[in-house]
Each structure stands twice: as structure tokens, then as C-alpha cells.
């Protein structure tokens, strides 16, 4: 049942947002976001009286759908804002000047202990990034470059069981390195900090999008199924945790200490102190 829901919602996403980088009218973007905001409430209300397990399955799937719509509309909004920056020659020149002042050797030294990435790969990505920026490429060309980065890094894991884990690890490392570069630009009071911050947000989001799709392809699932299974597992773990806590609480009821605490909590401010002393003697 979950797989059918995932496939249905994936088809809807591809109809509503066929290309996350292509401009979408602001009115349509807002309509999609409002639609996503109400989905879980609508479904929960419609399924009142249905078996609890069925509701959990349905709601986890629609939650993944709503989350995907929110993420993709945000990504599209960032893409349109960044497109204007990437088409501005003076801003690109300032970004190049600021980027050349960044101490990438220091960034690598600080990040190497956490990320443990191959230094030659990091240097190659740094040079490729600078070259792509200098060439004043379009947003679509930047998207191709990001796809090439994913291919380069994940190629050794293609067809292996640890591909999803390696993909997620790369996403974390990418985010960490980019945050270190932004930190350096901030400390240097770079004039183009705002432009870099916008580009960083876009590239992080688009990298998430690429990794999500690569993992889905590797495990032969839809992208929504990748997100949906995590949501379903998290909800199941939370439910089990609540049940265990309730069972523990129930097992403690009847213990002398618990009876005393319950009786004290039920005692009003005006109760006589002697009455409390009597309760203590009975414990």
C-alpha cells in the first residue's frame, strides 16, 4: 500500500514541478505551498475511524509528499534568485576577487579531521568551481557541474550496498566544506558575501535533490519513497518509545514511593500538615 502511495505522489510531483530549475509563476508556487500545508490535516480528517495502522501508513506517505513539494518550491525560488546573480558580470567579478582571497589550504586543514576527504579531490573541486564561476556560466551549466561532482565522488560506490550511506556522507561533507568557505568570507567581510550565501543555499539544496534521486535510483525506489520510509520509521520509533514509557509508568504504579508522590500531588494547599504526616507513616 505504501509503495502505491509513493508512486502516486511521485507522479503528482512530476506534474506540478516537472523541472525544479525552470521558472514557475509566484502565484502557482504559493498555491502549491498552501496545498502542501493542508494535506496532512485533510487526510487525517478524511480517515477518521479507519484502523490506526492504515492511518499511519497513509499519513507518512502524504507527509513525504508535502515535504517534497515544500522543498522543491523553495529550491525553485532560490534558483530564480540566483539566476539574476549569475547573469550579473560585476557581481561575478567581485565574487571571483573575494573567492581568491579565501585561504583554502586553511579550510582544508580544518575540515580534513572531520571529513577525511581526499585532498586532491578537494583541490580539483576548488579549481573547477573557480573556473566555472570565472566563465560566467548559466544556472543550467552550474547544475551540470554539480551533477558531475556527484558522479565523480560516488562513482566508486556504484552498484554497492553502501551507496546510500556514502551518498548521505558526501552530502554532509559538502555542507561542512561550504560552511567553512562561507565562514572565511564572513571573517574577511567579503563584499560579495550576500551573493555567495545565496549561491551556497541553492547549491546545497540542489545537491540534496541530486543525492535524493541517486539514492532512489540505486535502491530502485521513487525519491518520495526514500523520504517517506524515513518518516515512517521515525514515526514508528516514536510510537514504540511512547508505548515503552507508558508501560514503564504502569509498572511503577503501586510502588510505595509512587503512591506517596501521587497522594502528595493530589493534596491541596489547604490540607493539614498532620494529615501529610499520617500518609508518611503508612509508606
Automatic annotation (TrEMBL):
It holds the Pfam family BCD_RFX. GO terms for molecular function: DNA-binding transcription factor activity, RNA polymerase II-specific; RNA polymerase II cis-regulatory region sequence-specific DNA binding. Residues 1-217 form the RFX1-4/6/8-like BCD domain. InterPro entries: RFX-like, RFX1-4/6/8-like_BCD. PANTHER family: RFX TRANSCRIPTION FACTOR FAMILY, RFX, ISOFORM H. This is Transcription factor RFX3. It comes from Caerostris extrusa. The lineage of its organism: Eukaryota, Metazoa, Ecdysozoa, Arthropoda, Chelicerata. The gene is rfx3.
Amino acid at each position: 500500500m505504501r509503495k502505491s502511495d509513493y508512486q502516486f505522489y511521485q507522479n503528482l510531483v512530476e506534474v506540478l514541478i516537472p523541472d525544479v530549475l525552470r521558472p514557475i509563476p509566484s502565484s502557482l508556487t504559493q498555491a502549491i505551498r498552501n496545498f502542501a500545508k493542508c494535506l496532512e490535516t485533510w487526510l487525517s480528517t478524511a480517515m477518521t475511524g479507519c484502523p490506526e495502522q492504515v492511518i499511519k501508513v497513509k499519513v507518512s506517505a502524504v507527509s513525504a509528499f508535502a515535504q517534497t513539494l515544500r522543498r522543491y518550491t523553495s529550491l525553485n525560488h532560490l534558483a530564480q534568485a540566483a539566476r539574476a546573480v549569475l547573469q550579473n558580470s560585476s557581481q561575478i567579478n567581485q565574487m571571483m576577487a573575494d573567492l581568491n582571497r579565501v585561504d583554502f589550504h586553511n579550510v582544508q586543514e580544518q575540515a580534513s579531521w572531520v571529513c577525511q576527504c581526499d585532498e586532491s579531490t578537494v583541490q580539483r573541486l576548488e579549481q573547477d568551481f573557480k573556473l566555472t564561476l570565472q566563465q560566467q556560466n548559466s544556472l543550467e551549466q552550474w547544475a551540470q557541474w554539480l551533477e558531475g561532482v556527484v558522479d565523480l565522488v560516488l562513482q566508486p560506490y556504484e552498484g554497492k550496498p553502501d551507496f546510500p550511506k556514502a551518498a548521505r556522507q558526501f552530502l554532509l561533507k559538502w555542507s561542512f566544506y561550504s560552511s567553512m568557505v562561507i565562514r572565511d568570507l564572513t571573517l574577511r567581510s567579503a563584499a560579495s558575501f550576500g551573493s555567495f550565501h545565496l549561491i551556497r543555499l541553492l547549491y546545497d539544496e540542489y545537491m540534496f535533490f541530486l543525492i535524493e534521486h541517486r539514492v532512489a535510483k540505486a535502491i530502485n525506489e521513487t525519491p518520495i519513497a526514500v523520504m517517506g520510509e524515513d518518516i515512517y520509521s521515525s514515526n514508528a520509533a516514536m510510537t514504540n518509545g511512547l508505548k515503552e514509557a507508558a508501560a514503564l509508568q504502569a509498572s511503577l504504579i503501586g510502588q510505595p514511593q509512587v503512591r506517596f508522590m501521587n497522594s502528595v500531588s493530589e493534596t491541596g494547599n489547604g490540607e493539614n500538615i498532620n494529615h501529610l504526616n499520617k500518609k508518611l507513616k503508612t509508606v
